[in-house]
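Aim 2 progress update. The chain analyzed this quarter is reproduced below.
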Amino acid sequence: MLNIDLKGKKVFVAGIGDDHGFGWAIAKALAEAGATILIGTWAPIVKIFKTSWDMGKFDASRKMKNGELFQYAKIYPMDAMYDTMDDVPQEVKENKRYAELSGYAMQDVAKAVEADFGKIDLLVHSLANAPEVTKDLLDTSRKGYLASMSASSYSFISLLSHFGPLMQQNGAALTLSFIASERVFPGYGGGMSSAKAALESDTRTLAWEAGRKWGIRVNAISAGPLRSRAAKAIGIIDDMIAYSKANAPLAKDLEAEEVAATAAFLLSPLASAVTGTVLFVDNGLHAMGLAVDSPSLASRHAKMSETTSTCT
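Predicted structure tokens:
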């Protein structure tokens, strides 16, 4: 029996803000495999996250298979829009949500992790944001488009470039994508589909560069739709989930834990020869070229029903 054993491994998971979503599920799965978890949380919500954690609001979600509660070693405020604190506009620094914080740019977070824990082994990028995600691409402003690219794709480049030098050889990095990178999903706008396409292209290039430079593997998971709090901002997440259940080979809801299990594999020594890959974990939806619940197929379904009735 093959077991995923990550005892002694340190992993930095960027993008956890609550107990929903893929970032949380991946961190929990890695903790169950024995890894030490370091969390990077969007700076303005760190206080809310820590308060919710301390008050026990996440306790039900923290429970692992062995009955113990998932723990993290340390949480770091971060904002993936900025590489250095010099990049942070003064109005952001003075904003009441940032005023009490410092060292939340990517370079500073990496330095803090190194000072606290030295080398790390694994890196998870679970970040995405598009301020105009509900707008059609034709209606997206240049500012909104570039903000989406910066937060959702360049942030992975920045994260790896700053953490790569801190990572052990044979380490691994992982990011999360979505099939809108290569298929049209009306309503998934604001440049987010473009950012996911860039993210997948970057995954392949980073696999080459980080592999040769630091001996690090770099992969992506293209996950199916999940009803996380962040995904609700899209506005059509319920429709996307319903579509997937109606048309994917596996007609069921996708669970965050299924994506997390795949992530644990890709980050483990079991995947030591896997890099530069975008792996679909979406109940098989990516394989389909026809929407089987389309009204245009109604006559076909009717004929099939008649045939079945005749045969019985």
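The CA atoms of residues 55 and 295 lie 49 Å apart. The chain is about 40% helix and 15% strand. These observations will guide the mutagenesis experiments scheduled for the next reporting period.
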